[in-house]
Amino acid sequence: MFISDRHKASILFSISFSIGFLTISCSADTKFYECKQIVDITIDTSNQITDLSDNLKTKDTEKVLQVADAFEAAAKKMEAVPINDEKLLEYQADFAKFYRNHAQVTRNFIEAREDKNLSAAKLARQKLQKLGDTEKELVTAINNYCQEN
Description:
Elements: H1 5-53, H2 61-80, H3 86-114, H4 118-147
């Protein structure tokens, strides 16, 4: 069977286009899947913290430390997710850092309260409020990125 050069070029173009389309499609699927993994951890963590924090009295040291432990566990889960997308790697690292910082500042708050160190307790509370702002920024940023095509 004889295939003309023009026909060969057409077949090669079709194959190249198909491979390119599959690569883009797979990249989008990978990004979607990686986004979903990160977002699922943030949602699970948020739900867990909400459950632990419901009716939480700051004098209940054990419960507050459970919140800190939950943040620490979230950081480990976040770091364990295999991510290939460069931007998502940054978000993954930012969320892990956020969770670790939140855990540490929560522990600092408990320590300051137990030591009756009012200024350290106030500082820890301010840091926790700033972390709340950081969380909002992270969530907004990753949601915007993950919704991009």
